[in-house]
Each structure stands twice: as structure tokens, then as C-alpha cells.
């Protein structure tokens, strides 16, 4: 579909993730597709509950029961390909590896090394009981222990050390610690690289001794420890002060360029998106309703939802309810009919919107799931009276899936 | 008093979790046995039938007999009364003491708070069981005899006319159990006393007692109820331990029967077995119901709470 | 670091005050005791005059506060009083019984911890699986079962029916068993000791095993749902490391305080368990003394337990502040 030869670092194709809850099946991500060329920044925007977070967590294989990835492929350009040609040939797809087809222990190898992620709340993303330096060193150490150049003919699964109760008790002894001296040194270097002064001192400190901005820098340091090809940033600045936000974005910019990373950036802040991204995908109720490059989205948007976001209509600021379906409202994501999901909030809804629209190509990069994109249809339907609904209807608003 | 969301949670709990049903079944069994003891039991628990002594379980004696030929099944049924009554009375007493002290300490603060907190710290230094045993040493086993209403109204015959309760145990458990109630109530009072509705009540001249009664107390009920269920289970276990050790005052009690049966452990193992199973049933029932209640009232509480 | 020292000092002072109040309360039991020592030790037909004489000899006719001060001073010097009933200093009666009780308590705790933590971890990792169900139901049964009854059943099944364990008193202490091992190179002492302590230790430890399992499971589930665990997985840490090093560490830290706080329950439990197994420990002594109205022993035991509890708690609090990096010393 999006096979743009070899310049895509990662391709997501019809990814679907469902949460099988007691109240029903929640299609948190439903057929999401996009590609991120090497060195580019792809932004995902949408309200809380649109499925942004679930999408990237699916990419990272972080989905826990009752959630499960139910379809699609996640194709990554990775050196792992060479290693697994003999053992797992069906995971290879052209020049890429389909991460979904890898067995779990091999898939584990990818995280932190080929793809990395930073989270919104740096304070809760670190373990409060270990020093920051130690935790960054863990990332370094894991990478070092499973470096492909050292593996030669051993199967990948052999390289992952066992670690049970016994090792747990030994770990507190410095000589037997999981983390080696070299990894600690490297961790200190990484701290310096992200602009933390006095890194040696800082490495011995605990997360609560860091300010929010500094801790976010540390998280970035941790994420680039393995020099990943793809970095996912889930609302990296939403929890920070405005002045700090700029610094962090600058840092991300710098690191991205230095390592030539592809970045998937989630944000509900269009200013951040405009500043950082090359391409953007707009998500609503688990689907990408419109995607394209910056101009396509900001100046030539077609989908009414995108319009709405850009024009900062108040509905943007509504916080939707969490999937606390115990409340008794049947959420849309469970009882998905065949209509366009935006129909109840769309100012330009038409009769035909009762059937979900296909994806139209407005331009080479610009795609939209909306009948408004179909110009020939538009002229025919000139006589149809659009149904105008009010904006602030909460009733069928997006029910989130417990993640974003 | 039960709001909609709680009702919905309850329904869901019962629909999904077999544990809830087991809990209800177990608890109801004990309650029915306790209330309707004379009817449920096949004979009086005190009747001796020496020729039939130490028989193993049969149809006539579903749980066998002890060395004096008394029917174990009937004794277990009557034992439920003692356990349940002791549990409820003891917890009610300690709850009243604890909640009053706790709310006063939390709301008023100052030296009252200090004194009450020091007192509770001190009470915790010796385990409740030891204090209870010590109280026994001082007071001795006080027997409280209450007439059995069913027999009094002539609805049933051939059954004991009085219910004998271990008074000292109730007193002892009541006196020692207030601390946890105090702690919880104090916590609630502390968090609630700065709320706006309290300040506005005070500003229009509401007296302290009124505020504590009308505003703080209702909001603290949920955690207090949850604690109470746990404490009843605890009280039943304590009562049986004390009875087993010989510190009772009742004539029929699960703990007592286990102690009697100890001598015959090898020859008539059913004698100590069934009262023990009864205790397990009661406690499991209460615990499961407590879990259900806790989940229904606030599903966000973490699992595995410490007692 | 002065914050730390002032916190420590405050905590110590608090403990001392609480201990002292407890001692006073225990002392004042004397006011409530039915009959006094003179009535107890003299034969029933002794004349009132004789009784008065005995009382004044023993110093019982002096004002309460004088007796109190004398008592406290004695305590500080380690003098626990004298038991007229048993005609021996209380310390002499208590000391030899301490060791068996401590052995039992330690053994029970070890049994509890060794099983509870793995069960709790596995149960949390395999949430809602049959394993989890078994563990959860087992823990529920464990906290719901009266320990004395469990002990009897174990004796019946494992001791009598299967003949695996002896049902008589324990003759050897751990120390003597070990010295037999070292000096005589014989294992029989240790084995004998093990066989005797197994059933009591299991009986006493079951409740704690169940409690700890529930707490470990609950704690692990809580931690595994936290963001830092997801972040740890995101950086590629292998699952065992995430589960053990990260989640387990944060689960165990609060458990320390809970274990310390439950020592009281362990003491109460050992009273009952010692009775069941005729274990020659301090718990048994307590019951005997109450039944014989030997109050000096009773009071001393109460004070001893108080001391132990207050000490444990203070220790646990102090340990906790060192172990938990987030806790500041600005109390």
C-alpha cells in the first residue's frame, strides 16, 4: 500500500488493536496505516481517547490483556533481518521485518534498540527506588548484552539472560549487579549529551531529586542509549512548563538530527506539531481520518474534524470520559455501526455518511476518509441538505480505551 | 443509602464472580443456623446419650457424637449463635468507642488528638489476645444468659431455654478493638474538616457535636463498614481461640468443642473437625462478602489490603 | 543530616513514652487483682494478723506510688520481680523459655516468607489463571483458618495417620542440635529438631503465609500497572528483570513495615500454638500463669511483649526511612 521503496524507516499497515472487556470489545485502534520515512517526524494528533497512545503502544508491543493487537503489520527496517533469515523467514517482508510475526523473545530485542519511546510524565516513568543513572545504565547494558555483532551463530533467544529470585538477591551486590561499570560510564555520558550539567553527580540521584524538565531530558537520554532508528514521543511536553517545553523540543530536534532518527510524535498541541513535524496524521475514534504533510493538514484540510481542530473549536477542550463503561453508556467504540464515526459531531454530515467513507487521495501524500473529498460526488449532491448537528453533544463522544 | 453506581457494581460482581455467591452462601448458612438454631439442630446440644458416645457420622448424627453422646451437628449449629453474637456485639462496642474517639481526635485536634493517639499507640503494644486473656485473669469468665425467644414462646420444645454467652470475651474484644476504628475515623475527620461544607456549617454557628454528627460521620461510613466486616471475622477467630484455651463462659462454642475434642483426636476425629470447619466457613463467608462490598463501593481500591 | 537525627530522636522519644505508659498501665493491674499475694501464698486458714504481717514484709502496705517507683526502678535494672507462687525470680522462670519461642517464631516467619513471596509473584504474573485462582483461594483459606484447629488436623493427618512427624514434646533446641552437628559430626540432632519443629512452624506460619501472599500479589499487581514498568519494557529490559528487579523491589519495601507491625499477631498466635503442641515456650508460660494467678510473671510477660513490639516498630520505622529514597526526614 505505502511501499515507498527503501526510504521508510517504519511502515504501519492496517494496525488494529482491540480491548476485550467485560462490557464488550473496544476497537481502540481500527485499521491505522501510515509510514515514516527515514529522518522525518510524523505527528499524530487527536483528542484524548482517539487511540493515539494505543497505536504507539501497539507498535512497541506494550499492550497488556485485556488488550490485544488483532491485525495489521508493523514493518521495520532493521539489521535484525539478516540475523533471522534462517530462523524466522516468514517475518521478513521485502527489505523489512514485520515485528508482529516475531516470537516474543526476539521481539523483545527490538525495544530500546531499534525503536524507543518517551512518555508524558517523566516522574512516573522512572522507578522511584533506583537512581536515574542506574536506570539509564540498564538501557545501555541491555543493548550491550545483546549486541548482534557479538552473537555470531547463537540464536537470539539464547542471549537473553535468565533472571529470577536468585539473581534478584544477588543484584544488590555491586560485583554481581546487572549493570556494569562501563554501562554506568556511558549513562553519565548520555546525561551530559542531553544537556544535564554535572552528570556524574546527577547520575547518583533519585528521580524525585530532578525537576520535570531535567527528568524528561534524562528520559530522552535513556531512549537514545541504543541509538534507535525510530523514536516515539507520547506527549513529551504536555506535563511541562511552557518555557521548558521549548527546551525539550529543541533537544528532541537536535537528537533527531544527530542520529537521523524517525520520530513519531503524539501531541494534542497543534503548535508543537506545526513546529516539529514533517507529516501529520489526524486520529478520531481509533482511525486516521486524514493525513498528509504540514501544508495539507494546516491549510488544505478536507475532513471537518481536522477543520475543527485547526479552528480550535471548543469541542477540542472537552475531556472525554474514560472507558468506565460501568457507567452504563454504551460507548461508540464497542457498538461500532457502519456509519462514519464522526457523524454525530460533524457540521457537514450527509445522508451518505451513514456508510463509512473510503479513503480518498487528495494528493500524493494527502489522504482523507471523508466523502467531502470526492469532488464528483460533491457536485452531484449539491441538492442534498446537509444535516447540521450541534457540536457539544457529549452523548456519543469518544470513549477512550483507557489509554490514548 | 446505596447509590446507583454501587448497585450496578454489586450486580456486576454477582454476575461475574462465583466467589460472591460462595460468600453469600457461606455467610447465610451461618446466620440461619444462628437465628434458627433450635429448628436447624436435630436435637438439643446438651443432651447426653452415653450409649451412643463417639459414633462416627451417620444419618442420625450427621457429624457424629462426642464422648458424652452429644450430637456434634446440633452443637455446631448452636455454636454459630455464640460466634455471631460475640462477633457483632464486640465489634459494635469497639466501633462506637473507636469512631467517637477518632472523630473527636481528628476534628478537634490539639491535645485531645495527642492523648487519644498516644492511648491508641499504647493499646497496640500488646496483642489483643494477650490483653483479653489478662482480662480473664482479672474478671474471670462472666456468663451472660439470655433466654431463647423461640423456646420462650413455646414454638419449639426439647431445646435449651437459655443462650449462654461469654460475657468476658465480649467485653475484652470490645475494649481492645477500638484502635483501628479510631484511626480510620480520625483520618476521615482530618480530610473532611477542611471541606467547604464544614466551614460553612461552622460559620452559621453549628456546634462541634452537630458538625461531627451530621457532616463527618456520614462520609466516613464506607471505610468504617468495611473495617467492621473484617473485624467481625477477627472477633470470631479470637473468640474461638480464647474458648479453646479455656477462657470462655459459654457452654456451647466452636472453640470449646475443639478443645473438648482434642482428647479424642485420634479416636473420634470428627469431634474437633466439624466445629473447625464451621469456623472456616464463617470466616471465609465474611471475607468474601467483605471483598464484594469493597469492590462494589470503590473498585479502585487496590487489591490485597492489609488488615 | 541534622534532619535525620532530629527525626530519629523524636521517634525514640515517642517510643519511650509509649512504652512507659504501657508499663504504667500494666503495673496498675495490681489494683484489679482479686485477692492479693498474701491470700495466695498463705494457707486458707491463716489468721488476718498473719496476713497483715506478710503484707508488710513484702512491702504491700506502702502507698501505691512508692510501690510504683520501686517497680520501675527494678525494671530498669532488669529485675522482673519475684514469683511467690513458683518460688523463683521471674527472670529465672522466663529465660529458659525464651529460646523455644524465638525458634518457633523465626521458623514460622521463614516458612511464611519462603512460600508467600514466590506464590504471590507467580499469582500476579499469571493473573486470572487457574494458578492464580488456586493461590488466591488458598490464601483466603489460610487467613480464615484458626491456627489451633489447623495444628490439630495436621497432627492428626501427618502425625498420626501418616506417621511423618512426632507428636510429643520437642527435646532438643536448635543450638544443641547444631553443636551435635559440629562437634560430633552427627546429623541426627538436627533432623530430630527439624521433625519436631515442622508442624508447629507450619501451624503458626500459615496465617502469615496467606497474608503475605495476598499482600505480595496485590502489591505486584499494583506495581505492574504503573507507568515505570511500561517504560522499563519500552527500553527493552527483559521481562524477568522488569518483574523481579523493578516491580518486586517496590512491592517488598512497604511489606517490611507490615511484617513488623504484625509481630503482635505472631506473639498471639504462638500463645495458642504452644498450647496445642505443648511447646515449652513463653506463650505456654503465660497461660499457665494466668490460670494460677501468678501475677508477677504475667506482668513481666506483658512488659516483655510490649518492649519487643515497641522495639520492632521503631526499628521498622527507622529501616523504612533508610530504604525508601523518597521519604524525607522532615517529619
Structure, explained:
The complex is a heterotrimer of chains A (404), B (307) and C (331). By secondary structure, chain A is an alpha/beta fold. In chain A, 30% of the residues lie in helices and 20% in strands. Chain A has helices spanning 52-59, 80-84, 104-110, 122-125, 132-145, 156-159, 165-171, 181-193, 199-203, 212-223, 242-259, 270-276, 294-298, 304-310, 375-380, and strands spanning 8-21, 24-37, 41-45, 67-76, 92-93, 96-98, 115-118, 230-234, 262-266, 279-284, 287-293, 360-361, 367-368. In chain B, 48% of the residues are buried. Residues 301-307 of chain B have low confidence and may be disordered. Chain C is an all-alpha fold and 331 residues long. Chain C contains 14 helices and 2 strands; from the N terminus they run ααααββαααααααααα. Chain C has helices spanning 2-27, 37-41, 48-57, 64-76, 90-125, 130-144, 147-161, 174-184, 188-224, 227-234, 239-261, 263-277, 282-292, 295-323; strands spanning 82-83, 88-89. In chain C, strand 1 (82-83) and strand 2 form a beta hairpin. In chain C, helix 11 packs antiparallel against helix 14. Chain C starts with a helix and ends in an 8-residue tail after the last helix. The mean pLDDT of chain C is 82. Classes of the chains: A alpha/beta (404), B mainly alpha (307), C mainly alpha (331). Chains in contact: A-B, A-C, B-C. The interface between B and C is large, with 46 and 56 residues.
Feature tags:
heterotrimer; A: about 400 residues; alpha/beta; 8-stranded mixed beta sheet; 5-stranded antiparallel beta sheet; 15 helices; 13 strands; about 30% helix; about 20% strand; globular; disordered N terminus; disordered C terminus; C: about 325 residues; mainly alpha; two-stranded antiparallel sheet; 2 strands
Short description:
The complex is a heterotrimer of chains A (404), B (307) and C (331). Chain B is mainly α and 307 residues long.
- pLDDT under 50 segments of chain A (min length 5)? 1-5, 313-317, 321-331, 383-404
Mean pLDDT value of chain A: 79
Roughly what percent helix of chain A? 25-40%
Helical fraction of chain C equals over 70%
Radius of gyration of chain A: 22 Å
Write the layout of secondary structure elements.
The complex is a heterotrimer of chains A (404), B (307) and C (331).
Chain A (H helix, E strand, L loop, with lengths): L7 E14 L2 E14 L3 E5 L6 H8 L7 E10 L3 H5 L7 E2 L2 E3 L5 H7 L4 E4 L3 H4 L6 H14 L10 H4 L5 H7 L9 H13 L5 H5 L8 H12 L6 E5 L7 H18 L2 E5 L3 H7 L2 E6 L2 E7 H5 L5 H7 L49 E2 L5 E2 L6 H6 L24
Parallel strand pairs in A: 3-9, 3-10, 7-8, 8-9
Antiparallel strand pairs in A: 1-2, 1-4, 4-6, 5-6, 10-11, 11-13, 12-13
Helix pairs in contact in A: 5-8, 5-10, 8-10, 10-11
Chain B lengths: L3 H13 L1 H18 L1 H4 L31 H37 L1 H15 L3 H12 L3 E5 L1 H4 L9 E5 H10 L1 H15 L3 H8 L4 H38 L8 H9 L7 H28 L10
Antiparallel strand pairs in B: 1-2
Helix pairs in contact in B: 1-2, 1-13, 2-4, 2-13, 4-5, 4-8, 4-9, 4-11, 4-13, 5-9, 6-8, 9-11, 10-11, 11-12, 11-13, 12-13
Chain C lengths: L1 H26 L9 H5 L6 H10 L6 H13 L5 E2 L4 E2 H36 L4 H15 L2 H15 L12 H11 L3 H37 L2 H8 L4 H23 L1 H15 L4 H11 L2 H29 L8
Antiparallel strand pairs in C: 1-2
Helix pairs in contact in C: 1-14, 5-6, 5-9, 6-9, 7-9, 7-12, 8-9, 9-11, 9-12, 11-14, 12-13, 13-14
